[in-house]
Amino acid sequence: MYDADGALLLKFTARAHGHRDGDPAEDWPDYGDGDVGLTELASNGDTPTGLSDIDLNTPETNATLYGPYMVNRVVGGRVGNAKLMLAQPVGIRSGILMHTGNWSDWDEDEDMPNSAGCIHVHPDDCKAVQDALLSIGVIARDNPFASNNYPYEPQGLISIDLEP
User: Fold this and answer.
1) DSSP code of 142?
2) Total domain count for the chain?
3) What is the three-class DSSP state of 56?
4) What is the pTM (predicted TM-score) of this model?
5) Which of 46, 63, 101, 153 has the fewest CB atoms inside 10 Å of its own CB, making it the most exposed?
């Protein structure tokens, strides 16, 4: 994570791998390391690649699913598949967040589970991102609980690349 001047603020690990084909509720948390999973173009697949706008929002109400910290909401794509999938005001995909969770059967020493397109980070990293953003003057917007017709001017950019 970099500030507006390109200075490194924080390094952390994230997981942007979508659920495997099938019902993700059958086996949660879903690590799916041995499968391809659903693509970034699927409704609940990998996080769309490319450059997108992102904004800091107050926490989601369900701390079990999203963790107790602020979330970073991907609110619109600018370049690449993100532009196609996350167009505003209403994109093909929506609700993509960078967040953590308090999932049952998951231990903080394990890798993050797969998501429905969100970017999962460990709880300590989620708090560190929140604190770093606040320390450089990023405003925590009141959570609108949606990215379609997002009511605020996004304060940041996120670039997602697919690793081979």
Assistant:
1) P
2) 1
3) strand
4) 0.89
5) 153
| Residue 38, pLDDT above cutoff 90 | no
Residue type, 133: L
The two three-digit tokens of residue 4, written as one number: 């507006």
Residue 26 has pLDDT above 80, yes or no: no
Encode pLDDT of 100-149 as tens digits: 988 877 888 888 888 888 999 999 999 999 999 999 999 999 999 998 88
**Is 86 inside a domain boundary?**
yes
SS3 154: coil
C-alpha 87/C-alpha 124 separation (Å) is 31
Q: What is the largest CA-CA distance in the chain?
A: 45
Q: Does some domain include residue 3?
A: no
Q: Do 129 and 3 contact (CB within 8 A), yes or no?
A: no
Cβ contact 18:42 at 8 Å: yes
